[in-house]
Amino acid sequence: MTHSADTMRGITLRIASGIAFSLMTALIKLATTLGAGLGEVIFYRAAVGAMVVLLWVMVQEGRDGLVSRRPGRLLQRNLLGVVAMFLSFESLVLLPLAEATTIGFMGPVFATLLSWLVLGERVGWHRWAAAVMAFLGVVVVMRPGSAGHDSIAPIGVMFGLAGAMGTASVTIAVRHMAGTENVGAIAFWFQCTAALAGLVLLPVIGTSPGWTPILILAAAGVLGGFGQIWMTASLHAAPVAALTPFDYLQLIGAVALGWLLLGSVPTAYTWAGAALIGGSGLYTMWRERRRHVSREVPATPPLS
Question: By C-alpha distance, which of 251, 260, 246, 238 is closest to 303?
Fold first, then answer.
């Protein structure tokens, strides 16, 4: 395939993963309103997702597709991904759907901070300005001065920010593993690790909510499995900077699904904060494309 065809394939996969993750997130939020706890959310989302990924890998590549060439690095990525999933899902439990999704898009900003703190890269004033704009967006989403019905839980915002940091780190790791690991191995072993973590959490923070929330979470697991496959495959097919703008379609999906399934209408604070955070990410992507170092600014797959 040509470079252009690869890029178009990556964009198509990224849009498909965004749709799947948007639907998955909405179903998870719906299940939590019906009594599902974080233990059930993590376990059923990951266990069902693992079965979807396993079936896909066996059809596409057979058992060889599950073999990891660098199992130590893969395990580190999986553990980091589980922590990011826990933090992001807890934010989803505590916050409205649109607000939780919006805060999740702090990932590109955190990637900038990580490149400076961990990799020692030079970060110019353009990227710092974009980071400040995104943090202002988070402040706006928190609705300063609001009370009662219009307020949101600060602890939920903190979980969301921590989850975005973890997700950005995971995306960097996946991109660096693109040359050594199969898509199937990355996706499947992450799902297995998350399912095991959820199983351990079930006796501790499970709620035994009944069959309806569990079936909803199973459907979310199917969507999450396909979303994980398509998201990982998109990172193998195209530069991250080409994919980043399409991630922000999930904000629209979160608003629409929150309204249709949960009757939740975003406030002006949410719209303004989303504009600041989304604008920051898109500006950062544009700058990196101009500097021809797009691989250093990972897009954010919310709630993977």
Answer: 251
Which tens digits make up the pLDDT trace of 224-255?
Answer: 889 878 887 887 777 666 676 677 777 778 87
Tallying the residues shown for the chain, one arrives at: 304
Neighbours of 92 (CB within 10 A): 27
Neighbours of 83 (CB within 10 A): 18
The token pair that represents 198 in the structure block: 């959820």
Query: Tens digits of per-residue pLDDT, 38-67?
Result: 889 999 999 999 999 999 889 888 888 888
Q: Report pTM.
A: 0.78
Nearest to 184 by CA among 4, 62, 26: 62
**According to the model, what pLDDT value does residue 241 have?**
62
What's the CA gap between 136 and 132, in Å, rounded? 6
User: Which of 275, 234, 241, 240 has the alpha carbon at shortest distance from 255?
Assistant: 275
- Identify the pLDDT of residue 121: 60
Structural domain spans, the chain: 3-296
Q: Residue 156 in contact with residue 100, Cβ under 8 Å?
A: yes
Is residue 299 within 8 A of residue 108, CB to CB? The reply is: yes
Residues ≥6 apart with Cβ < 8 Å to 59: none
Question: What is d(CA 276, CA 141) in angstroms, rounded to the nearest whole number?
Answer: 10
